[in-house]
Specification:
alpha/beta; TIM Barrel; 2 domains; nine-stranded mixed β-sheet; three-stranded antiparallel β-sheet; 14 helices
């Protein structure tokens, strides 16, 4: 069965590092967007195995609104995740989520250090996160993920270790560690590229420092029983995200809402990027699909599959097509063969984007 991703692109504030198509939107747009989402969801044939409600800040939705989405998508989900901003949780909201089938929450923490958070526009602190994790547990949701970003302005080896210590002290079952992305889709990224000083752009750690922070996180989390199963994702045994594994194993999933992506096993497509465009097209009865492509499954097998620690099982056709690249990366220690499966080494992960490009160009 497919996984379903629902995009809720509404936030109370836009974080400086965020490069998603989300942010502060006109309040009146939310109800129109919800109506368009419900109509699109009803186009899904059959049920869904996993649900991921992302954003934006879907924890700011009223449970009644989430209920409308759930009613349009009847299923007994093995896993249903809701992204939440620390400080936006209440006992009543969590009970409402549980009643609708939500059994996993992903907290966008990013840092436990007050100074780093303030420069990104985030309003929570470490005590808020600790409170939210305890509240989720008391209300019956123990499957919790926490996000951290390596490379925030002003981050140091000491402050990064402080965030890692705070993370493992919470004993959550899942963590995601992302290295700061620098592109012009975020205010911070654009400022860095322009050589400006706003948003702490001049205090962003160097690429080498960010890489060291990431490697420190891998070592720290592993020591605490939270193991890397994908480049940016770590879990206690059995707590890997079932929904996100569909992306990396090239299993079918459907995305609903603005800027949502879908894959049916052969074709990939994307909805229009902005919430307003999505709503206006839906209200006119037009397709909200922006573009579609039919990717090369041979390329994607490595481009996507090598992100996973389990690696890729290469067949004869793969060796005929990609043999020289595979042999080269094996000989230089960027790839290793474990029980017949090829996977990135720790060194290979640090240059993974360059390695992936080789499979796209072959």
């Amino acid at each position: 069965m497919v996984g379903v991703y629902i995009s809720w692109p509404f936030c109370a504030q836009k974080c400086t590092y965020c490069n998603f198509a989300s942010g502060v939107q006109p309040r009146g747009l939310e109800e129109r967007y919800l109506n368009a989402l419900v109509a699109e969801l009803r186009e899904l044939p059959g049920g869904a195995e996993t649900l991921y409600l992302g954003g934006g800040t879907p924890s700011g939705m009223e449970p009644e609104a989430i209920g409308r989405l759930a009613a349009a998508l009847p299923s007994q989900w093995r896993e249903a995740t809701l992204e939440a901003a620390p400080g936006s949780l209440t006992a009543d909201r969590i009970r409402g989520w549980r009643g609708l089938g939500i059994n996993r929450v992903s907290l966008g923490v990013q840092s436990f250090v007050r100074g780093e958070l303030a420069r990104t526009g985030r309003r929570h602190d470490a005590a808020t996160v600790e409170h939210d994790v305890a509240l989720l547990g008391s209300e019956g949701i123990s499957n919790i993920s926490v996000d951290l970003i390596a490379g925030l302005p002003g981050q140091t080896a000491q402050s990064w270790q402080s965030s890692l210590d705070a993370l493992t002290a919470l004993n959550v079952s899942h963590a995601s560690v992302y290295m700061l992305e620098v592109d012009d889709d975020s205010r911070l990224g654009a400022e860095i590229l322009l050589g400006g000083k706003r948003y702490g752009a001049t205090d962003v750690p160097s690429d080498d420092q960010i890489a060291t922070f990431y490697e420190t996180a891998v070592e720290h989390l592993t020591r605490h029983g939270v193991h890397r199963y994908e480049i940016s994702n770590f879990a206690q045994p059995g707590a890997e995200s079932l929904h996100n594994l569909k992306y990396w194993r090239r299993q079918p999933y459907r995305g609903f809402g603005s800027d949502a992506h879908s894959f049916d096993g052969a074709t990939r497509w994307q909805n229009v990027e902005t919430a307003l465009e999505y709503v206006e097209m839906a209200e006119r009865g037009e397709s909200v699909r922006a573009e579609s492509v039919c990717p090369d499954p041979g390329e994607e097998k490595f481009f996507v599959g090598l992100r996973l620690t389990e690696g890729v099982l290469a067949n004869d056709a793969d060796w005929r097509r990609f043999g020289p690249a595979l042999e080269r990366h094996l000989s230089t220690g960027m790839l290793e063969s474990v029980h017949g499966r090829l996977r990135l080494t720790s060194r290979g992960i640090m240059v993974s984007n360059e390695i992936f490009q080789e499979f796209l160009a072959a």
